Amino acid sequence: MPRLRDPIHGFIELSELELKIVDSSPFQRLRNIKQLATTYLVYHGAEHTRFGHSIGVMHLASRAFCSAIHNYERDSGTQLFSTIDAKWYEQLLRLIALTHDLGHAPFSHGSEALFDDGLEHEDFTQKIICETEVAEIINRIGEEFCRDNRVGDDYRITPQLLWSIYGEKNPESNPQYLAHLSDFKLLKAFMDSELDCDKMDYLLRDSYYCGVNYGNYDLNRVIDSLTIYYNSRQNIKQLALQKGGVHAFEEFVIARYFMFIQVYFHKTRRYLDKLLVRCIEEVLEDHRYPSQVDEYLKLNDNIII
């Protein structure tokens, strides 16, 4: 199994097909999309990109999911998911985490004012995972999963299913989503909640590269304390925290607060972002990012500069 060395998490393992997503053109583009826009002009170490962050979030999503399931089953004495369901959910979560930032514009959030009205970077993420070579790889992963585990189409993995779980505003229109409604809502919490793996990674990564301590917290304690709250009567499953992890979670919340006031909302960085938008507006045709995904993918920080 391929391994990538990460400065925050050490060695990160991927499957051969997950590595093909990393090797794809849309994902390699993230090497040239800075995580923190113009922050490198204030904190000169902040040259890191969406590339490493996306791989780190995938790694944490696996750790967090397995820890939460293990803690629930140990404490309750009951199995939350069947073995095949747990394996399927983990693979879905890994792919969502790996691809969740593919649609970012040059300089990430710094230039999102240049999207056409009503568009966000998540709209381009959807287009990329559903309309490019990434879609073909996701479908292959789904086919291999069904074949290797000897299961039917009920366990297929498609770009549309990934988007239904993570980004779709009305996911109930997907019959496959409806069949696993409670479980898929739980999966989304690992990527979009007050204690999600996206925040877990970017706080530590941004703090490390900016050369500050504001974003540091006890990652291992937080992950080891994750569990699931299950209301069997209403079939509600929610990501939860064991009592012993409350102080680590408080540290996590405080770390996020200090990173926002000291780094993300730094007055000079905010001003530079506004100047950046004015400059990009002048060099773009129609003063807006293109809406066609193939044209959009040609743009990155280097091209803009």
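(the above was protein one; protein two follows)
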Amino acid sequence: MKITAAILWQQGAPLSIEAAELDEPEAGEVLVEIKAAGVCHSDFHPARGDWPMATPVILGHEGAGVVRAIGVGVVHVRPGDHVVLCWAPACGVCPPCREGDAVLCDRLEKTTYRNRLPTGASRIHARQQGVAPFLGTACFADYAVVAAEGVIPVARDIPFEALATLGCAVVTGVGAVINAARVPAGARIAVIGVGGVGLNVVQGAALAGSERIIAVDRRQPPLSLARTFGATDVIEMTPDQSLPRAIRELTGGRGADYVFDTVGAPATVADAVASARKGGTIVVTGLAGRDAASSFPLFPFVMQQKRIIGSVYGSGQPLRDIPRLVTLYEDGKLKLRELVSRTYPLTGINEALAALGRADGARGVIRW
């Protein structure tokens, strides 16, 4: 079938909006008409060239839409269902899956992270060649063929813009708090970077009953938004400011119990370690670059018994966690629509990526 897609032909160059061919779904696959797609830093980095990646590729991995066709063997969704896409479709049988770590599924390294469907195939063609689906989703197109394991049915009365944010930013941020760190009630939290993921760390900390939630960013607009998501304090960083000192001043001189770094740059990781109290925990969710490496003094790290952990995609089981997040939204306990600060047509994708690079705050969403 004919589709319209935003194709990245060369890293560092603008995405090209053009026609492409999409094959019908085969066994274990689902055709989804994309209705909304979030624009995430995980799209920005390969587009800019921070993450080396083979092209051509259709980016976009935060998607929501309507099922239009199903392949043989698909039974949990039907045409007409509204769905959220999960870009990490777990196999369910490998050791990490059996141990409950679906986001660490062995199959993801062989297929999803190589921009392929679980079969190893791509169903997209343009200019007489194959086009890879980024993370097996390729949401910057009006239709996509995805793995059945990555399609989660949801209620039909939830706006697609809200649903799109669930597919990555919300489950990543809230999950980092609930699943990875397991933050107890009454904790003091610091969040470095309050973009799409950081705002969800903030509201995840609020859901966990944190006593103090300190939002850190270089710009005032995202900090103002962070207050509406539950931040009790904000720090607008300047180049000559010491973040560890500022956080200690807000925590009685001790430092934060948990520090979440949603940026993942060498400097922010070092600041996160230094900002945690004795026995504190540092959770890194951001990836500024594929080869980024951080260093920090080992003596206080060891002598103060700090922990540093990584968290990918909420460190849980997305097929379980995303429906739970939908329920929280329906109960009025989780903000989703407030995450969307800008909407664009597909033709505005390059503008959306530029806004993300400027850190204009919250989430930009492509809307059909």
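Reviewer note on protein two: Residues 160-181 form the longest helix (22 residues).
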